[in-house]
Design a protein that fits this description.
By secondary structure, the chain is an alpha+beta fold. It contains three helices and five strands; from the N terminus they run H-E-E-E-E-E-H-H.
């Protein structure tokens, strides 16, 4: 089912609200999806990847546990994220939006509850860049991209780059 191909800015899949995974009955589907996602993350050397980026509108994301403080967790199925604390600004990028890195304001603390691959629920209290990464990936599940969170001025400055990405990588790209 899974196309397993990295979706780029301009792909409609990135703009949909994703559905929840049926934990008990969709184990096989989830496993094969995660295999595709891990492969994309490895090849692209990314920090994280959400299922819509791999072509599936389901509520799943993965994060690199080596780079982030996730107590060993890397798979987040049906995550619920609650943010708190002061706002912080740091640089973000996205595998689906190559070449654009921008400073984004987000709450600096978060609590995330999710299921792992074995169907166990877990909760993590996270902060700083880890909280940022979780919010970035969770946004993908609601069809939100980090460039949507830019100030109007910054958004205008990257508009041309975004339309170039759309033209170059988009599924409906018109090449002359
Ligand atoms: Zn992203």
């Amino acid at each position: 089912m899974s196309s397993g191909k990295l979706q780029y800015y301009g792909s409609k899949i990135l703009r949909n609200r994703s559905r929840e995974i049926e934990i008990s009955s969709e184990q096989e589907f989830t496993r094969s999806l995660l295999t595709d996602m891990l492969e994309i993350l490895r090849i692209e050397k990314g920090l994280g990847l959400a299922a819509p980026q791999a072509g599936e509108n389901v509520r799943v994301f993965i994060l690199n546990p080596v780079e982030l403080n996730l107590k060993g967790h890397s798979v987040f199925i049906n995550p619920e994220v609650t943010t708190s604390g002061p706002m912080g600004k740091d640089e973000e990028g996205c595998l689906s939006i190559p070449g654009i890195y921008e400073y984004i304001r987000r709450p600096m603390n978060a609590v995330v509850t999710a299921y792992d691959l074995s169907g166990e629920q877990f909760t993590l209290d996270i902060d700083n860049y880890t909280a940022r990464a979780v919010q970035h990936e969770n946004d993908h599940l609601d069809g939100i991209l980090f460039v949507d969170r830019l100030t109007p001025i910054r958004k205008r400055l990257v508009r041309k780059q975004l339309s170039e990405i759309k033209r170059e990588y988009g599924p409906h790209s018109r090449i002359l």
